[in-house]
């Protein structure tokens, strides 16, 4: 199985993604690094510990960055993932998993050094932990096998502004650093995540064969999340569903054949009206463009996905 460090701000779709990864024989989650985003970093760490504990897993969990690098921090919204990030769970069991004392960035660096060429970073929140790890260890790109991130968008409209996706919007400076580092990076953005609408009933079906991944908790959280999306989009309301966002990052890892990609050099607008926009200078463009050097880039952006295939993979795992 592929060794993965899961960088996350759980978050309902983050939880779906975690349970998909834990249930998949091809994925070995060797650590969970948390960040602010959908919730505060404290709540994110609490949720990661809780989600793993109730599923019977003991995986190192670390606490990471609490705010964006440069821009002012804003309190997380409570109406998308709930005030607790998991759809306002009515009760929580008492659990015993404890936090690894290292920072998320230090953990990433330590693991990459201990397993050179083996670690895949799957990042599904704002990118401050990865950016901090790059500052701590500039050689990190030579140690990491691959980066797969949920964030950004190329042609699909943004979900925070007309051009910005939430994870990139939340820390555009960190994101720009991550996109321009010299590692193999695949972006799983709104271009594909908005194509995959997962009905709540799918998670009911998963619950029937995935006893070990705490499906009651997940089901509660997914219902809350689906209510949010159903209020916004009539076509999502029709099936009482939600977008797959973070789980698509793992489905890309396990089933890349379901995706079509475009490669190029990616930069992020760090301020102004377009703050948080991800801009792809496509590889096939070979004439000079203002502000862009012509060098090869390592960003591969997912543009199309076999949505039916992705849902089937999720249901079967
Ligand atoms: C992303 O933002 C968060 O709300 C989700 O967890 C996902 O990572 C989607 O834009
Ligand atoms: Ca997330």
From TrEMBL:
<dbReference type="InterPro" id="IPR001910">
    <property type="entry name" value="Inosine/uridine_hydrolase_dom"/>
</dbReference>
<dbReference type="InterPro" id="IPR036452">
    <property type="entry name" value="Ribo_hydro-like"/>
</dbReference>
<dbReference type="GO" id="GO:0008477">
    <property type="term" value="F:purine nucleosidase activity"/>
</dbReference>
<dbReference type="Pfam" id="PF01156">
    <property type="entry name" value="IU_nuc_hydro"/>
</dbReference>
<dbReference type="InterPro" id="IPR023186">
    <property type="entry name" value="IUNH"/>
</dbReference>
<dbReference type="GO" id="GO:0005829">
    <property type="term" value="C:cytosol"/>
</dbReference>
<protein>
    <submittedName>
        <fullName>Nucleoside hydrolase</fullName>
    </submittedName>
</protein>
<keyword id="KW-0378">Hydrolase</keyword>
<feature type="domain" description="Inosine/uridine-preferring nucleoside hydrolase">
    <location>
        <begin position="4"/>
        <end position="307"/>
    </location>
</feature>
<keyword id="KW-0326">Glycosidase</keyword>
<dbReference type="GO" id="GO:0006152">
    <property type="term" value="P:purine nucleoside catabolic process"/>
</dbReference>
């Amino acid at each position: 199985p592929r060794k993965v460090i899961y960088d996350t701000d759980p978050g309902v779709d983050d939880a779906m993604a975690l349970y998909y990864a834990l249930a998949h024989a091809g994925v070995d989650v060797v650590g969970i690094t948390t960040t602010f985003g959908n919730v505060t970093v404290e709540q994110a760490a609490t949720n990661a510990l809780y989600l793993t504990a109730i599923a019977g897993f003991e995986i190192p969990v670390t606490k990471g960055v609490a705010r964006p690098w440069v821009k002012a921090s804003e309190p997380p919204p409570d109406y998308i993932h709930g005030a607790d990030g998991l759809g306002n769970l009515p009760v929580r069991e008492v659990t015993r998993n404890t936090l690894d004392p290292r920072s998320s960035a230090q953990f990433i660096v330590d693991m990459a050094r201990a397993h050179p060429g083996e670690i895949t970073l799957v990042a599904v929140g704002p990118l401050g932990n990865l950016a901090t790890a790059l500052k701590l260890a500039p050689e990190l790109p030579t140690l990491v096998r691959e980066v797969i991130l949920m964030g950004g968008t190329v042609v699909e409209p943004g979900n925070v502004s007309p051009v910005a996706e939430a994870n990139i919007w939340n820390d555009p400076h960190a994101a720009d650093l991550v996109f321009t580092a010299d590692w193999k990076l695949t972006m799983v953005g709104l271009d594909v995540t908005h194509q995959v609408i997962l009905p709540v009933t799918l998670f009911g079906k998963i619950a029937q064969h995935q006893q070990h991944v705490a499906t009651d908790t997940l089901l509660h959280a997914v219902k809350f999340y689906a209510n949010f999306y159903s209020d916004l989009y009539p076509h999502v309301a029709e099936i009482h569903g939600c977008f797959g966002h973070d789980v698509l990052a793992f489905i890309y890892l396990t089933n890349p054949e379901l995706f079509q990609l475009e490669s190029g050099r990616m930069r992020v607008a760090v301020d102004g009206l377009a703050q948080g926009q991800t801009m792809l200078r496509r590889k096939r463009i070979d004439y000079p463009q203002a502000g862009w050097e012509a060098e090869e880039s390592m960003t591969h952006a997912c543009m199309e996905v076999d949505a039916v295939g992705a849902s089937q993979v999720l249901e079967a795992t």
